[in-house]
Amino acid sequence: MKHKLLLFFMVLSISTSVVCAQQQTISGKVTDAGDGLSLPGVNIIESGTNNGTVTDVDGNYSLKVASEATLIFSYVGYTTIEVPVNGRSVIDVPMEADVTQLAEVVVVGYGVQTKREVTGSIAKIEGEELTAISVPSFEAALQGKAAGVQVIQGSGMAGSGSMIRVRGIASLSAGGDPLYVVDGIPITQDYFLNGDRGAFNNNPLATINPNDIESVEILKDASAAAIYGSRGANGVILITTKRGRTGKPKFEFSTKVGISKPAREVDLLSSEEWLQLRQEAWENDGNVGLADLPGGITWEQARQTDTDWIDLVTQTGFKQEYNLSMTQGNEKLSSYVGVSYSNNESFLAGNSYERISGRVNLDYNIMDNLKASLTTTLSQGINNRVSGAWDGGLGAAMSDALPIYPVRNPDGTYFTAGNNPVRKQELVDWRTRENRSISTLALTYEPIEKLNLNVSGSLDYMDLQDDQFEPAEWTNTENISRQYPTWVTNYTMSATASYDYSLGENNKFTFLVGGEYQRSLTEKWNKIEAFGVSGPLYEDPSIPDRGLDGEGKPLSNPVYETAPDQIWSFISYFGRINYAYKDKLFLKGSARVDGSSRFGQNNRYGFFPSAGLGYVISEEDFFPKSSLVNFLKLKASWGITGNADIPNYQRWGTFQRREGNDGNPYNQEPIIFPVRLENPDLQWEVQRTYDFGFELGLFDDRVVAEVAYFDKNSTDVLIDRLVQVSTGFQRYFENIAEINNRGFEVGLKTRNLTGAFTWTTNINASHLENEVIDIGATPPDAIAGSGDTRVVEGMPVGVNFLNRFSRVDPENGLPIFLDKEGNETYEFNLDDRVPVGSVVPDWTGGITNSFTYKNFDLSVLFTFTIGGNIYDDSGKRQLGVVSDWNMRREIVDRWREPGDVAQFPRLTMEPTTYGGLASFWNLNTTQFLYDGTYGRIRNVTLGYNLPSELVSKLRLRSARVYFNGTNLVTFTKYPGADPEIVRDHNGRQGRNLSPNVTYLTAPQEKAFMLGINVGF
Fold it and tell me: Mean of the pLDDT values across residues 781-799?
């Protein structure tokens, strides 16, 4: 018995020793493979067991496992990996972000979801993609990045804005731009706050520092955007800024410098060539001798002058930018702090945009279940502006600044008998200064597990000051300084409650309810004007803030033109339910009630519901399993959104007062008379959208595709219509039109090569059909845009309404037009105008190819537009009647003698020669309507990451140098300055109706940048 017991204890001892030998403690740290930051909350499981742990706030972990075990590391938004222990005691794990559709986290209205759960159509652009390209403002960097999102950069002028259309143009007289929401704040984004003084080139988004942006999500369909109710009809752009991360302080420094030139230039005639055409037109009109010349210039003087005005008003712009940021975090406090300075000169002499900004984002855990968050930024943008387009500058250099005009007279004074853009550029001082602060303070409280209560207060404050100084040498009288100040105070208060509830293992619910109140106050002076001053008013310390004296009254000198305050407000209630069954079937329903001060008492409130369905059918047992298709998700959505972007107070009837000395008195007494009818039924535009699509993963997600078809129908579309003069009223906003946008979008991501050399491709493309269904009894000329664009039933919004040009008669060189019935005629008659061309391109999109090899990386973005038309509104002067404008070189293909088959008719100085044309301004014909197809190498970036051993020696975490080129090559048949055009419109209607019209618009810039990014 003793021997048996001894043998038993020996075996037990040996077994225990073996078991103990097979168990060991593993420790290590889990970090983000991209930036090296620690990852808290990573799940670590010993494969085949329930033994596991999670990383702490610094990314550290410790776990006792078998020596031959395999550890599984999983984390939301990152690729799950398996790591064999192989006897090691320390295992540090870098985790790669999972960019597949299964785990990518996207921001939605008032929350976040994984892309797998999303039932709507949302495009996500990472912040790094916005800083990789040289653009005047961050939103221009979205071009070519998202299907269904058309981005047209306004021009190459510094600080210029962009026109963004999400799934087409759905409005006429109301705004067509998407709603911008920064960290939950719907921000002020009106380009026309300060009136028609450059519009697009005074961009309220330009003060936002793209280096502070973590990601941009674009909500495209109603299921995604309906949570923003009456303001989601044109899409929603959610901007999320960077926040602190757990770990010791980490710093990032970046800088880039470079130059810019025009992407394309117009080929104008020299002095001698222009004189030849002038003389030819003179003789064609039956005159003899030398032709008269404008500006009092003699032929002798003209032949001695050949001024290249384009060269004089352009420059090689210098660009520089510097950014420094810090992130840190612990279990109590995490923070992101960033400062930035940039000064970007455009290729227009004297034009630059200088921005300085600072941001502080803090998250503080007051208690385990109570957190406070502060998001604040303060920025200043100074736009040193120059005239453009119709106002002068480069526009004048391309038009009525003739090459026969000198810059200066023989006595050294400026030439003033004709347009001299250099004189204006050198004498007139024009500056717009914008101070802006966007801040939010939020509290999040979790009274019980999975219930989160959030309250927040936000302020978006803008101080906009536009200054123009004209010296006596320009005015020919005395120095005049004008200031146009505007102050916008926009605050938002919101409260939400969300609750996650699980019913068993298979049914998961997320509930959200909330309320929001927003109020905006705009205060301004129409103008502050001072005479005989020594310089701009912004340099005069005697003009205090808001131009008030100590008693709060306007100063007696200078002269003030006041403007009434503009106030609008929204009150909203909303809710959302998300349901998931077995993580493969997803349902979403949302509803929002909005009340707006802009609408009539009979339609003050609107109801905006939506519903969405997503079904990962590839998870079903009946779905065929193969190496080809590894993921298939079907989705559909429906919803109603609205558009409330109209001028304030349109619901009210308004009156105007005229004094007895205003030229329209009644018995020499003041009179008050009505100018606009009251409209108690005025309401927002209503948009109903259907969306069907699928997401597809092939070859283990080596190929990922997303396809969507949409149909959005806008009813109650607002028209600012003319009222019959006999009524005694002027204009009247009314909900009477209907517009339909339908089309489909394709997104494709492929990992073509992996390993030491990688190659990935991202392709997005969208096709759109736009049609005006109904405009009531409104005639086309009652709703007009620039360049004779109109609204016609059965045609796209803003269709070109032109006389049709047929050909040039080879015998006499006269233009032949088509009448309304399509018959050829020599007569030019405005009654023969018809809708022609296509405002909307057939296809828009972008292709990005990215390559890496060892420490090198290369990215190439190609953007394209296929189909559609461009109307060159300045072509009728540059290629038509010979007048006081210079002409483009295409005019060489003109009729000169009988038998010539030419593109352009015989030259003339008399507009009536062309079919009785009353004025050359009326020559709006299809001859100046061009194919809008173009492709552009939008961005090329070549980078090099310094080797890790060198980085370590320099005591850095990372270091990268790169070269970037923007708008390098453009492929187009369009002969004008640039096929990417947005005219500098005045007001919402002009932007909606005339997106394809150009008038002396400055081209885009071609930029070359050298940059350095350093982490330490």
Answer: 87
